[in-house]
Write a structure and sequence with these properties.
Layout (H helix, E strand, L loop, with lengths): L1 E7 L5 E4 L5 E2 L10 H12 L5 E10 L2 E2 L4 H8 L5 H9 L1
Length: 92
């Protein structure tokens, strides 16, 4: 199974294609696709450049990344990695 992820154009946040081509921010809410349906959904997301920046397919087991990029996708799904460290340095 696969899901589709990208970054949102307006704020750069990680987003996913949800049911009915909606935009969701939580990997657990992402729609799952297989075979030709995955390719068609990717084409549909790519046709929405005002929302999805560089969408691509991610291999998953359930909603957990399982392909060769599983570490990168697990980190992306957890949210920004720099926000907390920047706040710490600003107050120091």
């Amino acid at each position: 199974m696969k899901l589709i992820t990208a970054n949102r154009l307006s704020d750069g946040r990680v987003i996913y294609v949800g049911e009915d081509a909606s935009v969701v921010e939580d990997i657990a809410s992402a729609a799952l696709f297989d075979g030709d349906a995955a390719d068609a959904a990717l084409i549909a997301a790519a046709s929405r450049p005002a929302t999805f920046v560089n969408p691509y397919l991610v291999e998953v087991t359930g909603h957990t990344p399982s392909g060769r990029d599983r570490l990168k996708e697990t980190i992306r799904s957890a949210g920004p990695t720099v926000g907390n460290s920047l706040r710490h340095h600003e107050t120091a």
